[in-house]
């Protein structure tokens, strides 16, 4: 088999040139990182779990009309995705106070917010993904006003849908991060949901116990990271057989 050309390597995924023009292969690795990769570990099987979880969620979002870059899952660790131009703005949707929001405003974790809050962060590892506002985004040309409106509208739709989906399996969607890209078709393009949706970029708490079922278990040295991801996959009905064994 010919060696594939690597396009990009992120903290936990590697992107390769796809089999057809306009496609990429997204490979989920077992790397776990936190604090802008200052903390790093390998968690055996995490990539397999994230691949299955993200596939399921992207398919469900596609069914309600959310445009995504996802095409199909290729195997246990890889997805075929459409090649998009990533907009360098991370969109964070918050439903409860947690993480940096709780720290900034000295709120107790789990405090309900008056309404869902959207925050923006500039996608730059070198700068530590600083928080930005709409003026920064449009002034520096990272996204147009229309693109920003599309990203906000899509983010709120994703939040509404996923909040209900996770609640149905006993999980509370505390907050999550989304990335978007421009999908080009000749001279036109569409803003679509890109990247992944997994416990790596969602805070998920068990409704009954409040247990954290996401990457905070790694960030805060709570242990049982893989087991938490397995439980999320199990509740969604997508637990891969190879991820069951220790």
Could you provide a short overview of the structure?
The chain is α+β, with helices and mostly antiparallel strands and 246 residues long. The chain is built from 6 helices and 14 strands.
Distance separating the two termini: 31 Å
Strand segment tally: 14
Number of domains: 2
**Major sheet description:** 7 strands, antiparallel
Shape: globular
The structure class reads alpha+beta
Radius of gyration: 18 Å
The CATH architecture assignment of the largest domain turns out to be 2-Layer Sandwich
By DSSP (H or I, 4+ residues per run), the number of helices equals 6
CATH C-level class of the largest domain is Alpha Beta
- Named CATH topology of the largest domain: D-amino Acid Aminotransferase, Chain A, domain 1
Helix content: 25-40%
Helix-strand pattern: EEEEEHEEEEHEEHHEEEHH
In the predicted model, the low-confidence regions spanning at least 5 consecutive residues are none
**Mean pLDDT, as a whole number?**
95
CATH superfamily of the largest domain: ATP-grasp fold, B domain
The portion of residues forming beta strands comes to 25-35%
Identify the notable features of this structure and list them briefly.
246 residues; alpha+beta; Phosphorylase Kinase, domain 1; D-amino Acid Aminotransferase, Chain A, domain 1; 2 domains; seven-stranded antiparallel β-sheet; five-stranded antiparallel β-sheet; 14 strands; 28% helix
């Amino acid at each position: 088999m010919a060696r594939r050309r690597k396009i990009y390597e992120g903290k936990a995924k590697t992107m390769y040139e796809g089999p057809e023009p306009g496609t990429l292969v997204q490979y989920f690795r077992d790397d776990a990182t936190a604090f802008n990769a200052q903390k790093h570990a390998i968690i055996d099987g995490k990539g397999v779990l994230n691949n299955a979880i993200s596939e399921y969620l992207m398919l469900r979002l596609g069914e309600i009309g959310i445009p995504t870059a996802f095409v199909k899952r290729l195997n246990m660790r890889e997805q075929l995705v459409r090649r998009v131009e990533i907009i360098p703005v991370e969109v964070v949707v918050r439903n409860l106070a947690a993480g940096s929001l709780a720290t900034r405003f000295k709120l107790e974790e789990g405090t309900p917010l008056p309404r869902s809050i959207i925050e923006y962060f500039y996608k730059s590892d070198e700068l530590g993904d600083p928080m930005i506002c709409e003026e920064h985004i449009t002034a520096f040309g990272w996204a147009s006003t229309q693109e920003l409106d599309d990203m906000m509208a899509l983010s709120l739709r994703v939040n509404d849908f996923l909040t209900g989906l996770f609640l149905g399996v006993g999980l509370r969607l505390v907050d999550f991060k989304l990335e978007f890209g421009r999908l080009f078709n000749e001279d036109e393009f569409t803003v679509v949901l890109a990247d992944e949706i997994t416990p790596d970029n969602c805070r998920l708490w068990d409704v009954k116990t409040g247990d954290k079922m996401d990457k905070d278990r790694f960030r805060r040295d709570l242990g049982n990271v893989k087991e938490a991801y397995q439980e999320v996959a199990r509740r969604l009905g997508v637990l891969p057989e190879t991820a069951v064994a220790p």
